[in-house]
Known about the structure:
This protein has 2 domains: about 5-170 and about 355-390, 3-Layer(aba) Sandwich (Aminopeptidase); about 175-330, Gcn5-related N-acetyltransferase (GNAT) (Aminopeptidase, 3-Layer(aba) Sandwich). The protein is about 40% helix and about 25% strand. The longest helix is centred in the middle third of the chain and has 17 residues, at about 190-205. It is of the alpha+beta class. It has helices at about 5-15, 25, 30-35, 50-60, 115-130, 145-150, 150-160, 180-185, 190-205, 225-240, 255-270, 315-330, 340-345, 365-380, 385-390, and strands at about 15-20, 65-75, 75-90, 95-100, 135-140, 165-175, 210-215, 275-280, 285-295, 295-305, 330-335, 350-360. The chain is globular. The protein is built from 15 helices and 12 strands. The chain has a 12-stranded mixed β-sheet, sandwiched between helices. Strand 2 (about 65-75) and strand 3 (about 75-90) form a beta hairpin.
Amino acid sequence: MRAASPEFADWLRMADVVAIDDPDQLSHYRLAWNALWHGTPRASFFHTYDWFATQWKHFAGKGRDYRALVVRAAGDVVGIVPLCVRTEPHRLGSIRVLTYPLDNWGAWYGPIGPNQAATMWVAAHWIAAAQRDWDLLELRWIDAAPTDRAASVAALRAAGLPARLSPYDATSVIELPDTWDDYLASRDTKRRHEFRRQLRLAKREGNVEFVRHRPQSAACGDGDPRWDLFEQCRQVAAASWQGDSTSGNTLTHPAVRDFLADAHEAAARLGMVDVCLLRLNGRPAAFAYNYHAGGYVSGLRTGFDQSISNRGLGRTLLLHVVRDSIRRGDRSIDLGVGERTYKRHFRTSLQHSSRVVHYPPLALRSQGIRLARWLKSQWGAEPAKGDEKKTGDASPAVSTS
């Protein structure tokens, strides 16, 4: 590893960390967080102060211990590293994992601010020096190329925490062209025929109405959450095949219902909520609940009510969403992780995330996981998300008809 430049070494000597373990204390850094957000690579609603604070409010003490490392240089905040110690089940027993607080709601995460490498360098040294209350350090959802470029690995190693970068997951993305015809032209002949046929079939079912609510922020005089549309999305979610799910992955599940409502209110206030609804003959039939920022749409949950129609209204809605996003000038739509068939039909690329892992030598369960993963790697590919399904209650990506 190359030695730090004299300028960087001087910067490091001026840098320090304020460790926050209380949400009220974190609120003092809200303005700094908001300012840093604008320079954060892949910045989304998931990277906002409001998302982190809302999670902290609802899930603290439920197998999760939240904290934030505020990195300063010469008294100025230059970066923030939100973290969470999650207690996750494993065949070896419960294990405490220090990770980012995304909890698989989205695809990407990392330090807040434009200087992610420097922020991680300072934060890693603080983590190495602090009393350890975790068994495994696993920073997930990292964009290893080009945003992170293994900076997290270098930072941890420099702090005396041996770490490695490995594959974690993949998310389906629709990179939007200038026109709807250009998007159709990117699909093969069979898919173009199916898309056009799907739109015709929906019209034969009756009066199809596409509604999309994407308010400006409260700072711009809007921030309307449109609770009526949110409740209609919940109505469809409860009637969908996911309605009986016990994994806490739907809009209506008791474990996340209140959290998602508070997050909805916050996203609307920031101008980052994107609610899409398809009504058939006046009845809510399918929904796509998203967040958006800077032209990038992140899918959170979708669903459809098969009792209204079994003619693929979920796919019909997604076609309307893509066409409308192109009209609005959006750049991309992230359909989320998971390899459902419809995603292969719609996506234009599959983007891969990584994880950085450090196994403390004196943490026996951590070493057990390391051995288990190594043995798996000898029999095939590096265990990525499939391995994670055994160590956490990961929330699956959006799904539709």
